[in-house]
Description:
Blueprint: H1 2-43, E1 46-47, E2 55-56, H2 60-65, H3 69-100, H4 107-119, H5 122-132, H6 139-146, H7 163-187, H8 192-200, H9 205-234, H10 237-243, H11 255-265, H12 269-296
Amino acid sequence: xxxxxxxxxxxxxxxxxxxxxxxxxxxxxxxxxxxxxxxxxxxxxxxxxxxxxxxxxxxxxxxxxxxxxxxxxxxxxxxxxxxxxxxxxxxxxxxxxxxxxxxxxxxxxxxxxxxxxxxxxxxxxxxxxxxxxxxxxxxxxxxxxxxxxxxxxxxxxxxxxxxxxxxxxxxxxxxxxxxxxxxxxxxxxxxxxxxxxxxxxxxxxxxxxxxxxxxxxxxxxxxxxxxxxxxxxxxxxxxxxxxxxxxxxxxxxxxxxxxxxxxxxxxxxxxxxxxxxxxxxxxxxxxxxxxxxxxxxxxxx
Length: 301
């Protein structure tokens, strides 16, 4: 009986200590995440310019999104971002990781060079590529001249038909090393014995990749896809703002840039908040659907 009481007291003491240790983190989480989330959701249901008292309008802001041509165009650009970013970052990232996993000459310096763009700020990246893309003295057009391909020269950021794809190329260049490092870490966890067994069975490089590397890399691929998905939706503001500010003629407008303009240039905080929560819902549903697909494919998380 005494032993049982002692254990109960110890459990209560442990729970008290745990609650005491978690309290600071819980307070910070509630203060800097839960409260802004709830407050922002309330603002999305109002008409508010940031200064006067908010006026409750219910779901009017969300209904307005359905007929807003600029918002729908920005969302379409976001979707193009998602498809191309996921394709190039993962295909090129995995290919680069496989190359850097081999014993090639100067492998260490090459790995460092691949990761350098990740460390650059968005301002530095934007300034660098604005010079490269400059139609008059830019490096890209000069290189095309030098290769005798002057017919391919163009205004890379001024042409509405290609400006968005030019920005996507910059985003891929900046984050390719980040995704390649994640893939490289995953490749180094695959036992060499599996590859050796596959070679003994007569499997070539393609079959080894298909039946050994790819199945064991699926959890890592999932991580990279989710990171790329969230980045393509919500982390593309900086690079677009620095390079084109959404132009020309909204050709590179994404939801984040349109949301910031609506909030701080037009003074419509409620409508901008509605855009943010609509984007949050799209990203959340996309990630949940992706996790469901991967789990149905029996990928071990």
